[in-house]
Amino acid sequence: MELSDPADTGAVLEAVAALVEADPHAGPALVLYALARTLASPRGGCMYRLDKLADLAPEHRRLAYGLMEAMASGAARGPAWEAFLARLDAAYTRR
To answer: How far apart are CA 72 and CA 52, in angstroms?
Structure first.
């Protein structure tokens, strides 16, 4: 999915979830899942190896930036974020 505005949190979450659900074991899905799970743990300081972004194609990096913007804007918490994480987790437990 082409993402025109990384600040559109709903579009970012939907695009990431769709990518993960399509092929959870693909490289981009694994990197974005790890990033989303990391951003869900603010106590850990949201530590993430940013060099992993270099492994992503530009369209997937835009999704990663959108996830980071969601964290920075405070959208990485609450019911929508929890539903998003549950959807990602389900993609890995189904297979």
So the answer is: 19
Instruction: Give pTM, 2 decimals.
Output: 0.85
pLDDT digits (tens, 9 = 90+) for 40-60: 877 766 667 788 889 999 999
> Quick one: which H or E segment has residue 22?
helix 9-22
> Is residue 1 in a domain?
no
Assigned domain for 71 exists: yes
**Which residues form the domain of 17?**
9-93
In which residue ranges of the chain is pLDDT below 50? Answer: 1-2
Phi-psi region of 9 (alpha: psi -120 to 50; beta: other; left: phi over 0): alpha
Domain count, the chain: 1
Do 70 and 12 touch, CB atoms closer than 8 A?
Answer: yes
| Euclidean distance between CA atoms 35 and 27, whole angstroms | 12
55 inside domain = yes
